[in-house]
Amino acid sequence: MKSFDPIFFLLAVGGTVGMIGLGIAFAQTSALMIIGFAILMFGSIGTGFARKKRLNS
Fold first, then answer.
1. Which InterPro entries does the record associate with it (predicted)?
2. pTM of the full predicted structure?
3. Alpha helices in 1-57 (DSSP H)
4. Is the dihedral of CA 10, 6, 49, 54 positive or negative?
């Protein structure tokens, strides 16, 4: 595996943005933002782990 993989980097950035956005959404008490950022966070992190498992197998 290469030392820098842009797909994994984008998935990690997506997960990080989702976590930050989730904190902001809780502060704003916006249910729509909470749902959107939670989907972004779990989707990015889940996709990254699934991709890593598939590449290492």
1. DUF5325
2. 0.82
3. 6-28, 31-56
4. positive
